[in-house]
Amino acid sequence: MENISLIDTFAEFKELKNIDRVTMMSVLEDVFRSVLIKQYGTDENFDVIINIDKGDFEIWRNRAVVEDAELEDPNLQISLTEAQKIDSDYEVGEEVTDEVKLIDFGRRAILNLRQNLASKIMELEKDHIYGKYKDKIGDIVTGEVYQVWKKEILILDDEGNELILPKSEQIPSDYFRKGDTVRAIVYKVELRNNNPLIILSRTAPVFLERLFELEIPEIFDGLITIKNIVRVPGERAKVAVESYDERIDPVGACVGMKGSRIHGIVRELRNENIDVINFSSNTQLYIKRALNPAKISNIKIKEDSKKAEVFLKPEEVSLAIGKGGLNIRLASQLTGYEIDVYREMEEDDDDVTLEEFADEIESWIIDALKAIGCDTAKNVLNIPRNELIKRTDLEEETVDEVLKVLKAEFE
């Protein structure tokens, strides 16, 4: 019965845990041998035979036959009298092999053996999970939401392994309930208290890269290369692509007919606005494309400081900057250049630069106005009051005071 109990325990682990046959047999034999050493002082004269298919095992002990008076170690030797009880033909110097029953070890030893077996297999399973997911870092995995907490979500993969999706790695508009299917990338794998901790992410740029590989065959096949990705999760992303085959339009291939290919990616990312642009080694052209949809009039590049001064028509400034400065910030990250936006100065002898009002308007307010592309008094006055407040994030009283000062200049 004890044999059956142990093999049942072993079979349960084999059924539930993904450990290969050879490793399992080795673990089982090691556990048995550790008990033999504890019980008899050595395991060298024992043969452990494991039959996984039949679900049983046998332990055989080999002992040398000695004269009754010469018996010193009952584990390694057997007296002639005892040997002949087994078979009357045995003689001194021969070897006797007899089976050792597990029940002879005692109940405590059997309990320890079972616990050691469980502990060894659990340890192997942890190593297996750690190694498996360590090799999957940066790959997309799919799992089912098992538990939702305030700071993280517990997800189970198809083998029942536990994966963690922290709140910080979720898209702000993500909302999951128990039973939902979630896609994310394996962000990092750690050992915490000797347990594998698999952290997932839906906000990392590589998640967007993997989605492109899944949805766009030309990227998967290597015909189109993703040169860079920057994103503000759930808001906006910019993806620079390049094709080494002149017959392939990389942007068109990624977007698809009427956006058919990119639509699934946008939906997965909670309607994140994705700009796909052609990569170029021509810095000016690359920056122009990165600031899409704004149309650039002129660019001055300062290579030594990695800065770019971009000049646009007044109506294009807000497009270049984007909501909350998002477009220009992502364009800077994508190209690696700090981008400053300037309005094209129109011929107007009456206009006055904002620096002329330094005595009446504080410098930080002038900087806030410049940040939205306003360099002159008329630039500011041409923007409606409410829009100024919204785009500069200045207090209403501050904007009103600025407008009052600027209007007075032309009265």
UniProtKB/TrEMBL annotation:
Keyword line: Cytoplasm, RNA-binding, Transcription, Transcription antitermination, Transcription regulation, Transcription termination
Sequence ranges assigned to domain S1 motif in this UniProt record: 138-203
Molecular function terms, GO-annotated: DNA-binding transcription factor activity; nucleotide binding; RNA binding
UniProt-annotated location(s): Cytoplasm
Principal location: cytoplasm
InterPro entries in the cross-refs: DNA_repair_Rad51/TF_NusA_a-hlx, KH_dom, KH_dom-like_a/b, KH_NusA_2nd, KH_sf_prok-type, NA-bd_OB-fold, NusA_N_sf, S1_domain
Family annotation (SUPFAM superfamilies): Nucleic acid-binding proteins, Prokaryotic type KH domain (KH-domain type II), Rad51 N-terminal domain-like, Transcription factor NusA, N-terminal domain
Assigned GO CC terms: cytosol
GO biological process, one term: transcription antitermination
Stored Pfam families: KH_NusA_1st, KH_NusA_2nd, NusA_N, S1
Role description: Participates in both transcription termination and antitermination.
Family of the protein in this entry: Belongs to the NusA family.
Subunit structure: Monomer. Binds directly to the core enzyme of the DNA-dependent RNA polymerase and to nascent RNA.
PANTHER family documented for this protein: TRANSCRIPTION TERMINATION FACTOR NUSA (PTHR22648), TRANSCRIPTION TERMINATION_ANTITERMINATION PROTEIN NUSA (PTHR22648:SF0)
Protein name: Transcription termination/antitermination protein NusA
